[in-house]
Amino acid sequence: MPPDAATPIILEPRSRIDALWAALAPDRWPVRVQDLPQGTALVGGAVRDALLGRQCKQPDLDLVVPEGAINLSRKLAESLGGSTVVLDAERDMARLVVRGWTIDFARCDGPNLEADLQRRDFRINAIALQLQPPRNLIDPTGGLLDLRDGQLVAVCEANLMDDPLRLLRGLRLMAEIPLQLEPQTAQWIERHCALLSRAAPERILAELQRLVAAPRADAAITQLQEMELLLPWQDATNRWDQTHTPAAAQAAEMDEPERCLALPLARLAHLTSDEGLKCLRASRKLTQRCLRLRHWVAKMSGNPDKLSEKQRVALHSELEDDLPALILGLPAQLRSEWLSRWRDHNDPLFHPASPLNGSTLQRELGLKPGPAIGELIEHLRCEHAFHRISGQSSALAAAQHWCSLHSDLL
């Protein structure tokens, strides 16, 4: 059982807090600590990540203040040249955006900081660092022990139900941090998985995008699927299947930028349906990227020989930038070859382009603008992709021959 809120755990010895303070580097923050009201505390992810030694240079900061969070954010925005977004007027929560930093301010929820921390999602997120001396580190739920033991434990079942996005956030944390889901917490998440659809779609998508890009995503996704958390945004054709959906190990031969491009898209495409992404209010660009990847994965079924020449050119034209996401699902003997050819920007098949554009064809062959120009360009792109033409002269000759065969279209 976690300690009572009235008797917070305070990390000792003092040197550990000093090291934590140094890691957080408040002198780099755009807001000076001395400009914050007495009783302000840093809570949540920034404290957790600094304790784990995984803090970034510009972390998102979550600050709890005794009162007047929105007014404080507005005053700081005015003095620092930033902007304020009111997140929840009723609960007195606001976001300050300044110099590329994001700082969330919230009024203390409850009679004291310890009570506020008891209302949070997971115990590792319910740790606070007081910003004014003596700068105590307060842990009323046992989050420090969870960090030591690598456990993800919910503060309580009711807190997960209060904000159903927390059900997905737990899996996202597991994807980012080496944590094991505590059995009781796992039962609560699975029991209330249907509540997730009540969360704002944009928030669900944001958590999901962070999850699929995280270093331990595959293990977290397996658990997510077993709990059927994403069921409302899937269909029978794109359920997670490790037999044709790549694990991170299959990306070992890719460099880091290629993995960062391929793995998140491949995972997201296999975890959601077209309609699901629409319901999650994904951008048109992201929806189209996933749609095209799913289309070609299904059409090729791991065997490029099933595709005609025109289909191969279409595949590489449509998936040119995102091809690594498809390569991950290919048989091992093809992955290296396809990666090598994709990396070669002069490869005419993997980066298809017509050697002649529409203006040149009209000028050299006296053609009139119209749909036939597009068809001719596609023909030349295919001929070039399979090395049947090279250079402008052979391309013009091929174009003239095509025109003689399709004079009815011109």
Q: How is this structure best described in words?
A:
The chain has 410 residues and is of the alpha+beta class. The chain folds into 4 domains: 141 residues, Beta Polymerase, domain 2 (2-Layer Sandwich); 72 residues, Hydrophobic Seed Protein (Orthogonal Bundle), CATH 1.10.110.30; 118 residues; 52 residues, no CATH class. Helices cover 48% and strands 10% of the residues. The protein is built from 19 helices and 10 strands. It has an 8-stranded mixed beta sheet. It has a two-stranded parallel sheet with strand order 9-10. A hairpin with a 2-residue loop joins strand 5 and strand 6. Helix 9 crosses helix 11. The longest helix is centred in the C-terminal third of the chain and has 17 residues. It is elongated. It starts with 8 loop residues before the first strand and ends in a 5-residue tail after the last helix.
